User: Which sequence fits this backbone?
DNA sequence: CTCTATAATCTGTCTAACAGATTTTAAGCC
DNA sequence: GGCTTAAAATCTGTTAGACAGATTATAGAG
């Protein structure tokens, strides 16, 4: 889906209304039918956008009453979301340093045999993808998710998945750039992942945390030519 | 909205299909019309659920082709989401220890005058709410968001907002429980927030990080009577 | 076997109607 | 004037059907 859907536009426009009208938490939004009229779309499209706003915690719908502001989107968030041109690498790396380092540490401590097998499988998939000429960013993402999952705490995966968009772009760029460099760059990337997995396998929390932190640091450095 | 909507049920059921059919990334889901028939709902409801699945990065819709698995929801995530009875406090607290501690540290380092004013305003709103008999969990959430915002890095807010559902429940419970205790418990909660804000105001990163960590630790303890 | 055209299938959007919930308004009573 | 009650208006949640544009599958011709 290369073209944005109308409901994406409506989502952004409703966020704009909340901000431009300076609506406080608890304030009532215009009715669905009214919004549809304002934006020149059908009510079904408005509902789709509102459903996502509600799911994102920004609004809350009460049957018979209307939709209400539940929490205000931040100014920076709204600036961040519609624009894909902003340099986002520094942003998510900073969060990933603390989040994924801790996740690796906990994964090394808590992983079950099954979770370890899942991580190992993800490692194999990533290896195969990196050594092929196919895209490998999905496999890269998947391994990181499996490590977060091996913490045994779904909140780590939730927080990590919230950064999915940025992390996906970073990983795609990371793989592409590494492929445009001498072959040992890919081998280095692969080894970094292996070192993380090995520390988790060995149930070495400090080793896993350090390996993850190193990988993220090096991954970031690889993006700056 | 105390009752779950049909689209919430359909969301969970589609996740179940992905898991029970062991659909890999790239696998095609049944068509919207087919899903509507399977679940005994209208197609509009299926679309609403699919829109959220796509927004959550789990599926991807291609016009004319169908909806495809984009990333697999983790087993734990799907167990976590439909059930509200699981003890979720340990989960998000663990992530919040690393995420919000780092956010407080960075907020103390980087906050602008305007961001500080925003944080102070949030503090006043929380004080007023806690000293009234009205709900205060929204204000509690808002202050924490403003601190994440003051890091100057939207990724912190994105990750924090991903835990919105759990954190909201925790904060609501935290306020309710504190109100059922002697009055000094509310005062303590208030002072903890003030200490975080004071350290950020004073541009004391280590102080802010410690105060936040202490607050989260105490907040967690208050939930265990 | 390959290419082209057509048919079938699919998502995206619109319209209209109805059900159930909430809010507003109006009327009646004290 | 204030309070209560009932009716009307308004709202979200859902269903159903139609059509547009995109993709996939199939059939026929060379």
Assistant:
């Amino acid at each position: 889906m290369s073209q944005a859907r109308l409901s994406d536009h409506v989502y952004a426009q409703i966020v704009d209304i909340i901000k431009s009208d300076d609506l406080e938490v608890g304030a009532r939004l215009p009715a669905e039918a009214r919004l549809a009229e304002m934006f020149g779309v059908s009510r079904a499209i408005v509902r789709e956008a509102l459903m996502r706003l509600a799911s994102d915690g920004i609004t809350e719908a009460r049957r018979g009453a209307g939709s209400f502001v539940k929490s205000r989107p931040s100014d920076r968030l709204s600036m961040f979301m519609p624009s894909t041109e902003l340099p986002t690498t520094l942003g998510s790396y900073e969060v990933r340093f603390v989040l994924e380092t801790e996740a690796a540490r906990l994964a090394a401590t808590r992983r079950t045999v099954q979770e370890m097998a899942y991580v190992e499988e993800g490692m194999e998939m990533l290896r195969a993808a990196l050594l092929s000429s196919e895209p490998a960013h999905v496999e890269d993402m998947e391994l990181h998710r499996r490590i977060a999952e091996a913490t045994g705490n779904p909140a780590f995966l939730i927080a990590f998945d919230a950064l999915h968009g940025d992390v996906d772009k970073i990983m795609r760029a990371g793989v592409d750039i590494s492929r445009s460099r001498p072959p040992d760059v890919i081998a280095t990337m692969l080894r970094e992942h292996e070192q993380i997995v090995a520390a988790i396998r060995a149930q070495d929390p400090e080793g896993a945390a350090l390996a993850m932190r190193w990988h993220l640091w090096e991954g970031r450095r690889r993006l700056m030519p």
About this structure: Residues 31-33, 47, 50, 61-67 of chain A lie near DNA strand D (CB under 10 Å from a C1'). Residues 74-89 of chain A have pLDDT under 50 and may be disordered. Chain A has two domains: 6-79, 87-222. The CA atoms of residues 81 and 188 of chain A lie 32 Å apart.
